[in-house]
Amino acid sequence: QVQLVESGGGLVQPGGSLRLSCTNSGMKTGFTLMGWFRQGPDKRQLVAVASSTGSIQYGDSVKGRFTLSRDSAKNTVTLQMNNLKPEDTGVYYCNMWKIGLDAWGQGTQVTVAS
Fold this sequence. Notes:
Layout: E1 4-7, E2 10-12, E3 18-24, E4 33-39, E5 44-51, E6 56-58, E7 66-71, E8 76-81, E9 90-98, E10 101-104, E11 108-112
Parallel strand pairs: 2-11
Antiparallel strand pairs: 1-3, 3-8, 4-5, 4-9, 5-6, 7-8, 9-10, 9-11
């Protein structure tokens, strides 16, 4: 069974950095996509996602500030967030996907405030 465990959220001042990590603590499997989403007013919005081919897609608002990395064998995905802005505040969810399986973490709060 797959279980995603997230860590690394918290409170940081504008311009600061945080690092979010997510690991599948259950049975390891080959995910096609691994990434992070942020809860928006209506739906979860893409922050960054990495495919098994190595390509990475970032949301427009985080390009140049956030860096995503994945370790497929360890089922781990990490989001390095630099130069954080107040508008980055929200609940961040880890996601790992393959055909027939769409797994989500419990969410971790990121707050950017003075």
